[in-house]
Design brief:
- The structure is a single chain.
- The chain is an alpha+beta fold.
- Helices cover 36% and strands 17% of the residues.
- The chain contains ten helices and eleven strands.
- The strands form two sheets. The chain has an eight-stranded mixed sheet, with helices on both faces. The protein has a three-stranded antiparallel sheet with strand order 2-4-3, with no helix packed on it.
- A hairpin with a 2-residue loop joins strand 9 and strand 10.
- Helix 2 runs parallel beside helix 9.
- The radius of gyration is 20 Å and the shape is globular.
- The protein starts with 12 loop residues before the first helix and ends in a 20-residue tail after the last helix.
Amino acid sequence: MNPTDHWRPNASLATLQLRAGLLASTRAFFAERGVLEVETPVLSTAATTDPHLASLATRLASRPGVDLYLHTSPELAMKRLLAAGCGDIYQICRVFRDGELGRYHQPEFTLVEWYRVGYSDGALRAEVLALCSRLLGANRVEPAETLTYGEAFQRYAQLDPFQAKDETLRAALAASGHTDPGPALTGAELRDLVFTAAVAPRLGHGHGTWIIDFPADQAALAALNSAGLARRFELFIDGLELANGFGELTDADEQRRRFTAELAQREARGLACPPMDEAFLGALRAGLPECAGIAVGFDRLVMLAAAATHIEAVLSFAHRAGHETA
């Protein structure tokens, strides 16, 4: 971009019109199904404990000495609404994650997140496909393939992710053309990097691909199935992760244990250890109904619809490394 034109938007008018139409279609989709649109606060006194995510912090003049955090997801607040009896709900909102900037990432971006009470994981996956088919065209999405996490590794990296040793994982990274991350990265983190570098880019070409049955260490806020694997499911289209969903954990004690373990990991890595969300844990203890929930990266969905190769192309104004929003 010419320096004198730094004020201009990144996205073209046609792309902004496409984006607006996709937002309207998304709202119509949920209205047809009787799913309630909700809004929850962007600021919270608690923040994510996930060691792989970094929250942005701020303070208000009216609350001196109190750190507030911009949410990385509306998930915990939405589950408080579920526990209060709101029933099926969805939200379209901006979320914020520090340290995320690249071809598919921005420090602020838009999520479409929703929860269905009493839905099985499979029923929610079918609804996600229905939404994506409406917005992208059925030929881009269906018939969707379903692979377990282990099957995807066997097919595209020729290894068993649950049994492979570090040297095998490093060899798979090298075969995919990825630079060795060094000895500091081992075990589950090395396995996750292999998935990102060698497996994910090969998923969802010609049709959507669901990955299910994730390792228990990637459960986050998901329940475990009878085999001890996470009831987590991700949708890929054209090698791009578009959606991440859970059969939701409803056990407050187990969720507190996970949060505590994540904070211990953060402390060991020298990362900030924000307060865990006690209000959310209180909602779990009061009773979260059996449900399934999912978040769809809306900007990535617009990228697919617009055949864009960089997330900046679908945003009015994007953040760039070393620069203010341009």
